[in-house]
Task: inverse folding
């Protein structure tokens, strides 16, 4: 079984699966249970400054969207940072870290954008023995209206400034958590790096309204007939998160900056994908909130099994392996030609590939009277929609054509050489290959 | 108090509570959560095989999608648009041979989407929450006679009424409904559903039901043709085939359809007598319905004896399994040769058969089974033809139910073509109505 021990910023944990800063890590009771269940680390629910804690709403905090069979695909929340006293949290963090020295304990912090506020809290956090801090520059609701959370995360200069304060007043690793509610995530990441951040973590939640109550005409979750946008997370945000992670991983300015991946990670495979895109570890919240802490067992066994099959002996070996393959559209090989292929043995004759292709794509699937579905190579552009809508995994595949074969759609010979848009004759800005 | 062991034909073999349980809904209706889970399994197939398999062409993927989006009433409307007896069909259709057999998830996983129960969920919801969901077109002043208030006749009458015609439905029985009311196992149509469905269906208006009117007795086809613009015959199959075995006239031997009818109309099942050792002769749905209900009434031993092999049996595999699960013994390749007993049946003698595919032959070897009650379920026959051309013992029809006589249509079990199923009868009634409407609109 592959060794999943992870060293992230010098912080060791028995596996790369941390619980993200969120309700599951709000107090000692939950965190102890999480560690007993096998989680490698936690990022404690965000602490605020000394003084009366924030208050949460007393009605629904979460809204959801579902897939078939009411599988939760996306969750949003309007919960704030911890609503318990600072001292209580600090005492609990101290106790838990002392009892679980082998697990990563990171403390999430959000205090006002004033140097003194950070100068005040950082020594107290350091005294807990926690392994590092995460700066919550991402929370999109409630706190941002008070000049914290995403309000900081959307201004790169603030990120740099606060990160620098933290590096000045705290001597353990500083992770900057980024908001996705921004146009170009590379900018805040670069700002964090300039401020001295040891790592970035992303994504925080996305501004969202998950549903509208059509009886009361109020957004859900609804508080006394009114709703507010909340932070969206869960499986639905994974593609957005992975794209942002990859942008930071392949940006020359931030390349090599350690990343803690967050966003819809539900299974070992999700985790492996984030890691391949450059994450040194991953953080999980919605999956645990949906299924409980036990899911980490599947993540551990699945990642180990896959690594054994691939011959990887450490998580480190996987980190960033897919990054070189993330490129811009203009560099994709236009001489690569594939065709869809339907396995008649696996086909259950639902005809969804036909409906999708015939109604909305390229009319490249033929249907016979006996419901046999075949790809019309003369029309197929290999768009993959049939693969995506087929309910049977592996039934439809994209088969590359070999160089030298003639593409029946274009009548052209498939070229062996790589050629992209930058040199394509149809591109007005094409540059002749030299 | 009798028990299942009490010899002879006697009532009260089981306590009232047990009988109530035994004759409760075979498939309980879906709770909303169950319906949601079941609906989510539908793939919304293109040109869906389930629709092709449905004799009434209900748009099944659409109605299931409507259920899954929280609009079961809209789903009900989708069903009724094609099949106004969608409520009964949801209960009695052999879905395992029709839509559910064709479901791609049957192919994929051996577990089809539960279309029948979803249909019931949709139709029950709409029938419970709304008054009749269709409005009549302006009255045309045209009068149509429908003979037979079973599924074919009712479907025809509703469609004609919807198009503004004035419909009189005649039925020989004291109640409308046909086989829905008199012929289906009680556990498939509980809570007087058949009668409630007739009330709901006729709620469209423009339909007058006259009972106790039998073609050939109180009604004459010539009169109907003379008094109405069109006539639709849906008289079903009123006769029953004979066993042609010695001793068939002994006490305790009766037609399964009569037993089923009596049971359906019984107010108190504890008062309904049944034998201790019951033998049902036949291999169709009627045989299974009679056998299973005998068992549920408390008969100790119930055997279905079918002259051919299992693969030829008219009752579906599902029905066979249902019978077996209730404790009915299925006996194949055995045909009755004699019924023994001194005035009252005591034993039935069966001869084993061999079936080489083209002919069925007795092997000469016989076996006797104890029997104090024997039900004949070997097929029904048409009793009234009204002077129309016949085909294979049924009224010959072409196209949408046109008979050999102008102005007369026929459909359901009494007409040739199609399986003798409720859903087929509905399709034939509906299609004949459209043909009649087209003729009347010229």
Result:
């Amino acid at each position: 079984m592959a060794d999943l021990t992870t060293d992230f910023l010098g912080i060791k944990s028995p596996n790369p699966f941390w619980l993200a800063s969120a309700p599951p890590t709000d107090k000692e009771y939950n965190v102890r249970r999480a560690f007993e269940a096998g989680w490698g680390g936690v990022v404690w629910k965000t602490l605020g400054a000394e003084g009366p804690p924030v208050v949460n709403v007393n009605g629904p905090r979460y809204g959801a969207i579902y897939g078939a069979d009411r599988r939760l695909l996306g969750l949003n929340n309007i919960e704030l940072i911890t609503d318990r006293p600072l001292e209580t949290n600090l005492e609990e963090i101290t106790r838990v870290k002392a009892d679980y020295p082998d697990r990563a304990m990171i403390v999430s912090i959000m205090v006002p954008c004033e140097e003194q506020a950070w100068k005040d809290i950082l020594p107290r956090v350091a005294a807990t023995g926690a392994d590092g801090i995460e700066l919550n520059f991402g929370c999109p609701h409630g706190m941002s209206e008070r000049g914290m959370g995403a309000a900081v995360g959307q201004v790169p200069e603030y990120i740099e400034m606060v990160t620098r304060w933290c590096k000045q007043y705290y001597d353990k690793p500083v992770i900057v958590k980024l908001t996705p509610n921004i146009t170009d995530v590379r900018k805040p990441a670069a700002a964090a790096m300039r401020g001295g951040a040891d790592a970035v973590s992303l994504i925080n939640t996305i501004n969202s309204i998950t549903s509208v109550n059509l009886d009361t005409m109020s957004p859900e979750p609804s508080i006394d007939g009114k709703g507010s946008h909340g932070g969206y997370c869960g499986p639905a945000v994974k593609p957005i998160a992975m794209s942002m992670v990859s942008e930071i991983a392949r940006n020359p300015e931030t390349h090599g900056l350690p990343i803690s991946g967050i966003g819809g990670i539900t299974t070992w495979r999700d985790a492996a994908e984030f890691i391949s895109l450059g994450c040194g570890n991953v953080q999980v919240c919605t999956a645990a909130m949906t299924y409980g802490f036990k899911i980490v067992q599947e993540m551990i066994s699945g990642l180990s099994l896959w690594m054994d099959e691939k011959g990887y002996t450490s998580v480190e070996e996987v980190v960033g392996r897919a990054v070189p393959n993330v490129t811009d559209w203009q560099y994709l090989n236009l001489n690569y030609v594939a065709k869809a292929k339907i396995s008649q043995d696996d086909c259950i004759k639902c005809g969804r590939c036909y409906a999708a292709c015939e109604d909305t794509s390229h009319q490249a699937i033929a249907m016979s009277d006996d419901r046999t579905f075949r790809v019309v190579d003369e029309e197929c552009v290999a768009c993959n929609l049939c693969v995506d809508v087929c309910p049977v995994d592996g039934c439809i595949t994209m088969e590359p054509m070999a160089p030298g074969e003639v593409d029946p759609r274009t009548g052209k010979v498939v070229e062996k050489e790589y050629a992209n848009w930058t040199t394509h004759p149809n591109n007005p800005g094409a540059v002749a290959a030299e | 108090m009798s028990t299942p062991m009490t010899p002879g034909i006697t009532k009260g073999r089981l306590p009232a509570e047990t009988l109530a349980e035994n004759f409760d809904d075979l498939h309980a209706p879906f709770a909303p959560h169950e319906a949601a889970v079941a609906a989510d399994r539908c793939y919304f197939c293109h040109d869906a095989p389930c629709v092709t398999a449905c004799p009434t062409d209900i748009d099944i993927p659409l109605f299931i999608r409507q259920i899954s989006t929280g609009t079961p009433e809209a789903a009900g409307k989708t069903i009724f648009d094609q099949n106004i007896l969608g409520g009964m069909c949801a209960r009695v259709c052999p879905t395992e041979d029709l839509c559910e057999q064709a479901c791609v998830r049957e192919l994929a996983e051996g577990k089809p989407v539960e279309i029948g129960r979803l249909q019931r969920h949709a139709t029950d919801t709409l029938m419970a929450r709304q008054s009749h969901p269709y409005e009549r077109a302006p009255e045309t002043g045209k009068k149509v006679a429908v003979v037979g208030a079973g599924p074919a006749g009712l479907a025809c009458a509703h469609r004609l009424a919807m198009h503004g015609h004035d419909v009189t439905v005649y039925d020989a029985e004291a109640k409308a409904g046909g086989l829905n009311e008199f012929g289906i196992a009680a556990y498939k149509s509980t809570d007087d559903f058949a009668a409630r469905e007739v009330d709901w269906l006729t709620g469209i208006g423009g339909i007058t039901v006259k009972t106790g009117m039998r073609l050939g007795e109180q009604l004459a086809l010539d009169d109907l043709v003379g008094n109405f613009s069109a006539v639709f015959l849906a008289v079903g199959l009123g006769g029953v085939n004979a066993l042609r075995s010695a001793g068939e006239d002994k006490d305790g031997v009766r037609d399964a359809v009569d037993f089923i009818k009596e049971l359906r109309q019984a107010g108190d099942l504890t008062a309904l007598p049944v034998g201790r050792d019951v033998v049902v002769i036949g291999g169709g749905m009627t045989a299974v319905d009679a056998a299973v209900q005998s068992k549920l009434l408390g008969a100790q031993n119930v055997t279905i004896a079918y002259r051919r092999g299992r693969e030829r049996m008219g009752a579906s595999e599902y029905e066979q399994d249902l019978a077996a699960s209730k404790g009915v013994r299925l006996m194949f390749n055995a045909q009755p040769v004699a019924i023994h007993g001194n005035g009252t049946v005591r034993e039935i003698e069966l001869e084993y058969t061999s079936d080489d595919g083209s002919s069925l032959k007795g092997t000469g070897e016989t076996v006797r089974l104890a029997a104090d009650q024997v039900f004949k379920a070997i097929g029904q026959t048409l009793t009234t033809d009204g002077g129309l051309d016949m085909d294979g013992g049924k009224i010959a029809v072409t196209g949408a139910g046109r008979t050999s006589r102008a102005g007369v249509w026929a459909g359901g079990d009494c007409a040739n073509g199609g399986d003798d199923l409720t859903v087929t009868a509905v399709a034939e009634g509906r299609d004949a109505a459209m043909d009649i409407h087209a003729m009347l609109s010229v």
Remarks:
- The longest helix of chain B spans residues 422-441.
- Chain B has three domains: 32-127, 143-238+382-440, 242-376.
- Residues 242-376 of chain B form a domain with the FAD/NAD(P)-binding domain fold (CATH 3.50.50.60).
- Chain B has a mean pLDDT of 95.
